[in-house]
Amino acid sequence: MIEDEEIEILLTDLFDIHGYDFTSYSRASLKRRISRLYSLDKFPSFAELRYRVRTDESYLKRFVEEITVNVTEMFRDPSFYLSLRNDVLPILGTKPFIRIWHAGCSTGEEVYSMAILLKEAGLLKKSLLYATDLNPSVLEKVRKGIFPLIQMKQYSESYISSGGLADFSTYYTANYGQAKFDQELSDKIIISTHNLVSDSSFNEFDLILCRNVLIYFDKDLQDRVLKLFDASLGSLGYLALGSKETLKFSAVQNNYKQLNREKIWKKIV
Amino acid sequence: MEEDSLNPEIELVLIGGSAGSLEVLFKLLPLLKADLKPAIIVVLHRKSAGDSSLIDLLSTKTVLPIQEAEDKDLILPGNMYLAPSDYHLLIEKNRTFTLDYSEKINFSRPSLDVTFEAAADIFGALTAGIILSGANDDGTIGLRAIKKAGGKIIAQDPTTAQMPLMPQHAINNLKMDHIFNTVEMAGYLNNL
Ligand SMILES: C[S@@+](CC[C@H](N)C(=O)[O-])C[C@H]1O[C@@H](n2cnc3c(N)ncnc32)[C@H](O)[C@@H]1O
């Protein structure tokens, strides 16, 4: 078991030595993740773990990857995607060009889901999807667009509940237990590392999705990140959050109007 | 006073269940008094992700203020919180909730073990954990953490459980403080 003080020591090291600032992250989550990694990697002592994190660049990469939560799915919360189809894409479709930012996209299942929606709405050609995350290794998976075949049955069901009419399997090629999604989709995805804690706005977007990332941040950091999104969203743009996240009580809430029951807000200024 | 430090007041009660536990809650909740002292967190394995109706259903059974736990909500005494579906429910030092979308544990999200362990870490000896009917092993590891922190651990009497496996697994592996039927459980909670 890792002690609370030891967590703080690691966070200080991560910042002082490597420039990663996790100090505003949920301690309950960090403690679980670090304890899990500590026993998974069989460290004999905390001192040993600390030494590795301080000095071993390749272990640092693993450490950061494992203490952040990278779980994701295609078409998670189908009603959310249904609302994107019905309420958001028709409006975005009136623009000559569509820019979408997936912040904290993890391995990209959400980004490919979005690309499929755009294709079905006939908008993929004039769209660009920016996929960013803190972890370079998850982004490598976004680039490849290869996901475990075993999950396709469930993804296909969610796709159908999200209003999808096609045969889901037409979007990928199955091979050796993997599903490789069409090049046509990946061609529209631009990948870059971006740390929501320390990096600034890099473009203006029509739709920003940041789902299940803010739950790991404290109130102040949530507010800061929402301001960053606000600054990165064009007028009348859309902001989409995870099903348990909200703009309510944030500094920017007055600039937005929630569309419906889904966690989608329209910028009204 | 001596007595108090040895037997600290329970400030947080966790009730965890899986298959067959809803029936128990339907019987238990109406028996709880309105000015119950501790906060109660209910963690249930649920089948479908989107069933938000469970909270409405439970609220018809109790006079206590009940809500689905939301990210950053403060845990208040005498209030009842239901862990939302498809997230793990964690607790911070300042007694607020954090929702977590990490891997399923024991094929479950929310998992009893995750919330029980988090509670043991923050509320320590002020925690009581109750395990109800269910058909898997989730909860035992969490109860062990509560016990280790000095809290109380309780199992539904397996002979009264629709699915005895889950409480039985805890009983087989841990020294339980109590094994209760529903009425005894209510009596215990009302006297905290
Ligand atoms: C639980 S996943 C969410 C994935 C996806 N958006 C979804 O909802 O299915 C959280 C992601 O946020 C990323 N993340 C955490 N902190 C971040 C930060 N400061 N900047 C950018 N990404 C971050 C993690 O690396 C992880 O991939």
From TrEMBL, chain A:
Molecular functions (GO terms): S-adenosylmethionine-dependent methyltransferase activity
InterPro entries (alphabetical): Bact_Chemotaxis_MeTrfase (IPR050903), CheR_C (IPR022642), CheR_MeTrfase (IPR000780), CheR_N (IPR022641), SAM-dependent_MTases_sf (IPR029063)
Keyword Transferase: yes
Transmembrane segments: none
Keywords from the UniProt entry: Methyltransferase, Transferase
Biological processes per GO annotation: methylation
CheR-type methyltransferase domain sequence ranges: 1-247
SUPFAM superfamilies linked: Chemotaxis receptor methyltransferase CheR, N-terminal domain (SSF47757), S-adenosyl-L-methionine-dependent methyltransferases (SSF53335)
Pfam family, one: CheR_N
Database matches in PANTHER family: CHEMOTAXIS PROTEIN, CHEMOTAXIS PROTEIN METHYLTRANSFERASE
The protein, known as: Protein-glutamate O-methyltransferase CheR
Organism: Dyadobacter psychrotolerans
TrEMBL record, chain B:
UniProt domain CheB-type methylesterase: residue ranges: 6-192
Signal peptide span: none
Gene Ontology CC terms: cytoplasm
Top EC class for this record: hydrolase
UniProt catalytic activity: [protein]-L-glutamate 5-O-methyl ester + H2O = L-glutamyl-[protein] + methanol + H(+)
InterPro entries (alphabetical): CheB_C, Sig_transdc_resp-reg_Me-estase
Keywords assigned by UniProt, alphabetized: Chemotaxis, Hydrolase
Catalytic residues identified in the record: S18, H45, D138
Pfam families assigned: CheB_methylest
Protein name according to UniProt: protein-glutamate methylesterase
